[in-house]
Fold:
Amino acid sequence: QVQLVESGGGLVQAGGSLRLSCAASGRTFSMYGMGWFRQAPGKEREFVAAISWRTVNTYYADSVKGRFTISRDNAKNTVYLQMNSLKPEDTAVYYCAAHPRGPVGFRSGDFGSWGQGTQVTVSS
Structure:
């Protein structure tokens, strides 16, 4: 498995931007599909975005499409989530996830490795 460490969370006003980073250990990062999920208090963890391991296709939840962008830098073993036009409803703990030769799906159970999460708070 790959170890994942997120960073870049924080407090931002509505309409602002943040960029999350997820650094992965290991030499086979390029063989992993990567995803971002989020979990707000009292809610289930939900899919946000994913990027495939080979074709670098990207996938987004409808709620973030057009505002968030996922990207990866295989040379740095890092995946990013650029978040623009943030809304208070984007407030959550954001988790990075990985699955070999993924993504195979967009549910939490479709990813085998997880980071510890980073808090994003959007004030109105």
Summary: The mean pLDDT is 96. Residues 90 and 122 are 7 Å apart (CA to CA). The longest strand covers residues 92-100.
